[in-house]
Amino acid sequence: MVELTGCSLTLAQAKQVIDEKVFVTLSQESMDRVKKSREAVERIVKEKRVVYGINTGFGKFSDVLIDPEDVEELQLNLIHSHACGVGDPFPENVSRAMLLLRANALLKGYSGVRPVIVERLVEFLNKEIHPVVPQQGSLGASGDLAPLSHLALALMGEGQVHYRGGIHDTLTVLSKENIFPIQLQAKEGLALINGTQAMTAMGVIGYLEAEELAHQSELIASLTMEGLRGITDAFDEDVHLARGYTQQVDTASRIRSYLQGSRLTTRQGELRVQDAYSLRCIPQVHGASWQALDYVKEKLEIEMNAATDNPLIFEDGEKIISGGNFHGQPIAFAMDFMKIAVAELANISERRIERLVNPQLSDLPPFLSPEPGLQSGAMIMQYCAASLVSENKTLAHPASVDSIPSSANQEDHVSMGTIGSRHAYQILQNTRRVVAIELVCSLQAVEHRGVDLMAPTTKRFYDEARKVIPSITKDRIFSKDIEAAASWLQSIQLHTIISNETKEETTNG
């Protein structure tokens, strides 16, 4: 069970709710804040005070006053007019993350919604009713207006939802679950859509997958080290302590632990004095990606617990301020940084693939072919990896450097953070396939060298991977192998296959 407070949600807890469907509850203290905030809104309506978003229009219409009898229609019109997202829907787990993050943000008690709004978001979570939300249409400032409007539609009984493996009309599902649609009241529509929960939800899903893939890429690189009879001296702890980056030190330590006991790796001078950068610099390059991912994690966990709508209500309604917490720039930068970090894991992986298949760079069979010439082996797999890497370079162009004015220039600078988060996820899928290709090739290489000579940890991983990826004894449709390997990597958690507690032999450093 995960209790939401509005202030303490972690990525680990988010993963439990999103992936493991852990039951969500609401802290009483947080709900008390929500109630007080709502009472302030109701006083404002009763006293006919002019406050943006409660009894005014939106954006450029902020100076248009709304009659008290029209404030509910104002919220309905807001959601209907802003629900103009287009394109394919976000993955269902991203929609689930949006529900979680929106509920947590409202629990901070600055938004002025009724408790039933928060309760309904959590009810959707616990009953696994996930709004269908189109991916495209957000500028990432004034919040993720279009995507979150589609989320709000579901609370109102409109639009469509993911439910029990299919997509259904929302009203049909609500009837089945005995849930009544909500009629939004003053400020509630604005409070639901004015925020960064689409880009942050996409970022959370992307980060959680990137973190696992980064760990997997290190173990697969270790198999490549064995396949190429790599030199382990470059991973000696003293080398990495001398530079001082914690993530680099940690990466080197994990590589040493994975290769402990291997009789395939070498020491400097045995076969050659030093390896190419794609082997020798694994800790430096992967470690730098970890630095970026650590930055992303920090920003996501701040944003997950942030009040990002507008206006915000303080001091029981005595202080109401129109600000700009909906601006997605912090997450936009983080997503662009994640794009680069993950793309670089693919870049260096593709270079290791080249060394595995190129007969001019190793003594392995050309292209790992069982019959060089008659059979092409992994030749075109490297082409595929190169193509994915090049596509990543285009996607890695920072979205956050772009801006375009909207709402008649009232909203004249925007973050494009949602575009950045979506591109980061695309890069992640491409990178997983590149790493999957390295896995296919490294398995073949260590098989050629002798699997009985592998380190215990890499051998355990080899045995599990071979259940999914058969040995290359004849040319076949390798697309199937790549996709099978990528799907397997996406479905597993490394710690369930290998132990990270393998004791390190200092002589193997």
From TrEMBL:
Enzyme Commission code: 4.3.1.3
InterPro entries cross-referenced by the UniProt entry: Aromatic_Lyase (IPR001106), Fumarase/histidase_N (IPR024083), HutH (IPR005921), L-Aspartase-like (IPR008948), Phe/His_NH3-lyase_AS (IPR022313)
Chief place where the protein resides: cytoplasm
Modified residues (2,3-didehydroalanine (Ser)): 142
UniProt pathway: Amino-acid degradation; L-histidine degradation into L-glutamate; N-formimidoyl-L-glutamate from L-histidine: step 1/3
Gene3D superfamilies: Fumarase/aspartase (Central domain) (1.20.200.10), Fumarase/aspartase (N-terminal domain) (1.10.275.10)
Gene Ontology molecular function, alphabetical: histidine ammonia-lyase activity
GO CC annotation, single: cytoplasm
Catalytic activity: L-histidine = trans-urocanate + NH4(+)
Cross-link 5-imidazolinone (Ala-Gly): residue positions: 141-143
PTM summary: Contains an active site 4-methylidene-imidazol-5-one (MIO), which is formed autocatalytically by cyclization and dehydration of residues Ala-Ser-Gly.
Protein name: Histidine ammonia-lyase
UniProt gene name: hutH
